Amino acid sequence: MTKPTFTIVATDQLAELRRLSIDTFTDAFGAQNTAADLQAYLTKAFSPSQLASELADVNSQFYFIQVANAVRGYLKLVSHTDYLEIQRLYLTSAVQHQGYGAAAIVFAARRAQLADKSELRLGVWEHNLAAIAFYRSQGFQQTSSHPFQLGSATQTDLIMTKKI
Predict the structure, then answer these.
(1) Which residues carry out catalysis?
(2) From the CB of residue 123, how many other CB atoms can be counted at a distance below 10 Å?
């Protein structure tokens, strides 16, 4: 595995972030959802104005995950009072299952430590069994759940927590 680098996404990289967000989310969840629900979610969640707002939020940071100088994914971290949330972690299919997700978890844990947070948290779709198994292998445990709206479909995300 080539060691990945994590670079903060700048506001002038919004178009690249948007394209990557749409592509990786569609790859991950397109086949399990209706086209209408998927399109409604993509339009709302990854609109230029929504992403610009998220990039401007002082409590959130986006990082491109680069492998051999090519952007192969991204990570969005959100700071809360007691914990750091991994709100998004997406990799292109070309680099999945190669250790880059684990490297992103290590990176996020280090960011949490530097911010004096006691844990990492994330949400994962209850039917995404591979991701759940991956997060468990990284030391996360399910602590709760909450609804996640994808178009007209109300889904359930499991909240998973890892002590730092």
Answers:
(1) 135
(2) 18
Strand partners, 113: none
In tens, the pLDDT along 64-109 reads: 999 998 999 999 999 999 999 999 999 999 999 999 999 999 999 9
C-alpha 85/C-alpha 83 separation (Å) is 6
CATH number of the domain located at residue range(s) 5-118 in this protein:
3.40.630.30
User: Which residue is it, tokens 């997406």?
Assistant: 90
In the chain, what percentage of residues exceed pLDDT 90?
Answer: 95
Q: Which amino acid is at 31?
A: A
SS3 81: coil
Q: What is the pTM of this model?
A: 0.94
Contact indicator for 4, 72 with CB cutoff of 8 Å: yes
